[in-house]
Description:
533 residues; mainly alpha; 3 domains; two-stranded antiparallel ribbon; 11 strands; 54% helix; globular
Amino acid sequence: MSVPVPDWVAFDVSKSGGVDLLGLRASVQALGNELFDGVTTVTPKLRYMSVISWVIWRYAEARLPEKRSSFLEFAAAQEAAFVMANQTLGLKVNNLVGVDGANGLLETGMQKLPLARLTQNIALDAYIASSRQLNLTKQAEQGLNKLSEQRGLLLAKEFDKVLHGTAYGARLKKQPNTNKITRAELKELAAPMSIIAIPRGERDILIDVLMPREPLTPAEWRRLRHYTLLLWLTQANERPIEEADIFEAAQRLPEGLPGSLAASTDGFLAFVVRDCLAVCHESVFAAVMREVDSVFQERAAAAPSREVITSLVAGAAEKDEALRTFRLLKPSETAAGVSFRTVYERVRRRCRKDRVESGGIVRWKGGLSETELYEYAASSGDAAVALLPVAWCLACERPSKETAPDMQPTSSLGTIGPHQIGIDAVIRPKIASFLGDDRSYRDVMAELVLRTVQQHLRVAWSRFSAPRGKDVSVLIADTESWSRNKVFNAGRTGSRLPMAIDWLDQLKLTSKDGLTKAGKRILDRSLEVLENA
């Protein structure tokens, strides 16, 4: 390979359980960060945005010390009341922060329960960044948090209404540092504080936060467009949608898609293209580690790297079947017997029908699909080795090769650098080299297996070499032999789409039947805002 990597990666230091062990999910996550702000993979319950806003407002109203430790103690106490009140309902609700601690207290015979931190990381830790992105809160000069006038203050006061007339609400107003709550008070708060039943007033404010009538920033315009796309797809499909529906729409634009939503589908397609590369490389690396383990079990010794690669690219029925599944191999052909050029040209033919370019990204009718490819690779064992070159060829078809001088591409798909196997930086030049040298498909499989291993070693070395670095190496490379250092699980980059879809359900804009009447009203309103922009 042309990019140097260390010959030895093994350290006697504490192990780290990082998940992006090839460094290829980082570019996918960067695209996700550009696409969707205000929601993350660890912010499942939208009503926590109300709780956090209310906690900040209540603390300020009580004129408590402007000290971080004091504020966190107050926040933890109010969160404890919120969680225990919800558990008092007897419902099995997921994603309540500190639920185990709350259950432990509720199972005691105490009539007065302590209000204190239930878990090391309270909900404020997980949700505060999203609340800032949603323009609900912002950091104050003293390092605490304060509310935005436009939204956060409005939401906090609306949530405070659930405490009006309650015993705990009256006591909290007089004694903001109260550290006890009775079971009777929890029972009184249970329904008003339900995590799954957001009152109408709060719901309306939260809808305007996610899908504003007057977006304030470019990020808010993007967010409005993305949530509008989710509502539009729910209406078009006449059922609740899933992440796969959005990725399918991104690859093959549905009929009647409003033009104002095109930039969102371009962004999600870029996400899918990069995720396909990450999944296929990780599936190949998992195959490498299985082969390394097999050799060790047989010989109780490290596996010669050349032997591992030779075994993985050897002719096998599952590799041939994988390529035939995507109509890239004829019945009489084998992966080990065809040229790379043959498969490359067939990939291009399968991406040719009704090609359309928009926003710097290309689509076609039918043909190859990234999601179908990475789902097959992730579940096909060693056959993933035969599909990785296909993923490289397919990636080359997506970014526009030529962009007009006055065109601003909405996707940065082609600009990712060499250390993350960028399409322009690495894949296109290497494919040109494979074609120029008329390499066999078997040789290309072997080179991409080796590049996958080197990609991991490069990531492991870079993370260890940083100050106070961690050893994240899965594979120990000692000159010409490989052995296992730790467990590796191939996977996909977590997108924020499942959370965003669920937030729409929590706001009653969608239901098990599809789009609700409220959802249709907000969809129409949002399309009008976008089309008039």
